Task: inverse folding
C-alpha cells in the first residue's frame, strides 16, 4: 500500500509540475506565457526528477505504466503489484490535472481556444500521421525504458539526476513530433480530466482519435526495450 500511495502522489506531482509548465507557457495572461521549448524541456525534466527523489526508495518512482510493465518484465517488480501501480498512476495523473484546472482557472477562462487548453494537459502530433506518430512515441519510450533500466542504482541519488537527463534528451530530440508523452498516466489520465472537467469554448474535443497512441505506443516501446535489455544484460 505504501508503494501505491507513493505512485499516486508522485504521479500527481509529476503532472502538476509538468503540465503546470505547459499552462505557464501557453495560457493567456500567464506571466511566463511564450516561455518556449527550452523552458518546457527543463521544466518537464525537473517534473520527473523531483518526485523521483522523493519516492524512489518507496516504490522505485515509476509514475508510468510503461516503466512499471518494463520493470516486471525484467524481474524488478512482482507482476501482482502491476495493476495496483498502474491504477495509482492513472488516478494520480487525473488528480494532478484536476488541481491544475483549479489553480489556472482564471487563465483557462481567459484563453479562448479549446485546443490550446487541451494542449496544456495532453499531447498531440505536429503532423497527424498514425504510423509515424505511433513510431515516435514507441521509439521515445523505448529509449526512456532501456536507458533507465541500464542506469545503476546508488544511495547518493545520482540515478535521479540521470533520469532528468534522459527526459530532457528525449524531449529535445522527439518532442516536436508528438509532444513526447511516453506515459499514459501523463497523457491519458489528464486527457480524461480535460474531457470531464475542462471548459467548452465551442469545439471542445479530447481527441481520443489520436489519444490512443500515447496510451498504447509507450507500453509497446517499454516492453520491447525490457525484452532487449534482458537479452543484452541478463
Result:
Amino acid at each position: 500500500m505504501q508503494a501505491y500511495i507513493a505512485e499516486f502522489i508522485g504521479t500527481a506531482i509529476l503532472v502538476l509540475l509538468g503540465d503546470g509548465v505547459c499552462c505557464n507557457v501557453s495560457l493567456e495572461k500567464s506571466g511566463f506565457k511564450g516561455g518556449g521549448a527550452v523552458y518546457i524541456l527543463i521544466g518537464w525534466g525537473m517534473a520527473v526528477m523531483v518526485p523521483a527523489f522523493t519516492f524512489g526508495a518507496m516504490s522505485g518512482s515509476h509514475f508510468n505504466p510503461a516503466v512499471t510493465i518494463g520493470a516486471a518484465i525484467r524481474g524488478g517488480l512482482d507482476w501482482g503489484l502491476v495493476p495496483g501501480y498502474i491504477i495509482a498512476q492513472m488516478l494520480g495523473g487525473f488528480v494532478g490535472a484536476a488541481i491544475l484546472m483549479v489553480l489556472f482557472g482564471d487563465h483557462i477562462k481567459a484563453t479562448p481556444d479549446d485546443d490550446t487548453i487541451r494542449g496544456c494537459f495532453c499531447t498531440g502530433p505536429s503532423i497527424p500521421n498514425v504510423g509515424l506518430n505511433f513510431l515516435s512515441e514507441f521509439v521515445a519510450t523505448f529509449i526512456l525504458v532501456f536507458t533507465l533500466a541500464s542506469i545503476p542504482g546508488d544511495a547518493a541519488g545520482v540515478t535521479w539526476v540521470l533520469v532528468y537527463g534522459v527526459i530532457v534528451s528525449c524531449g529535445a530530440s522527439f518532442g516536436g513530433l508528438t509532444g513526447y508523452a511516453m506515459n499514459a498516466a501523463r497523457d491519458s489520465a489528464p486527457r480524461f480530466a480535460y474531457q470531464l472537467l475542462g471548459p467548452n469554448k465551442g469545439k471542445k474535443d479530447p481527441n481520443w482519435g489520436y489519444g490512443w497512441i500515447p496510451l498504447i505506443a509507450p507500453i509497446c516501446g517499454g516492453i520491447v526495450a525490457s525484452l532487449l535489455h534482458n537479452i543484452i544484460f541478463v
The chain is about 75% helix and 0% strand. The chain has a mean pLDDT of 95. The domain at 2-233 is CATH 1.20.1080.10 (Glycerol uptake facilitator protein).
